[in-house]
Amino acid sequence: MPRSIPATAxxxxxxxxxxxxxxxxxxxxxxxxxxxxxxxxxxxxxxLGLAALILCVLMRxxxxxxxxxxxxxxLAYGLALxxxxxxxxxSLKSIPLGVAVALEFTGPLALALFSSRRLLDFVWVxxxxxxxxxxxxxQHGEARLDPLGISLALGAGxxxxxxxxxxxxxxxxxxxxxxxLGTLIAAxxxxxxxxxxxxSELFASELLPVxxxxxxxxSALPYSLEMIALTRLPARIFSILMSMEPAIAALSGLxxxxxxxxxxxxxxxxxxxxxxAGAAATIRPQAKLG
Length: 290
Fold this sequence. Notes:
Oligomer: single chain
Largest sheet: none
Strand content: under 5%
Helix content: over 70%
Radius of gyration: 19 Å
Shape: globular
């Protein structure tokens, strides 16, 4: 008879993943508190800059073997990561955290369903489209959303899809050094933008404790916990659990930022979560060629 798997072996990675999602969204709420001081661009620069320093110390990316050919996917991965963070933080200036995360989730969802031809998968597409429709600006809506904020969050979702595509390629070539190298590239891309927007205020010493907190909560801690969970959970279960993130973001926005959502926005978030979880649970992996 097969040996039973201890409950802790199943529960531990799930708990770690939940902690990672709570950490990321708490970090996003904390980051939003920096916007009045250094803006979204400056906050993104501080997050990525400090996260790059932390990850470089922990992962020693200078030991990676780099070549011109292998650096192409790494460069694309880093640029996608930087753009994703910048656009996401800029969207938070005008739309609630939970809504922004739900809109951003459409990127990975579209990537997962892009090559699908089954009827069931079009049900998930329809659910996601329904969620997006509920979030579109309307003169008669209970709470209007800023069109620019919606566009920025959707742009962040597109960058998230590119981040996944190029992250897989870069990860296959550079292994554990990929995250540190990609974050360093993202920081080098975004830091000049933050410095141009904010000036010398970006280096104010009183910002450092909060900025370090954002970097740890949003990058260093959750990325590490997610990697542990990913190695211990089936990819499909991992994806289904990750679909909870928009709801966690909405609750984080409510608790830490006082962002109250209208009924249609909660319904939209629920539709996008269901579409993401359903796609992860039912989509068929593509057959490998060769």
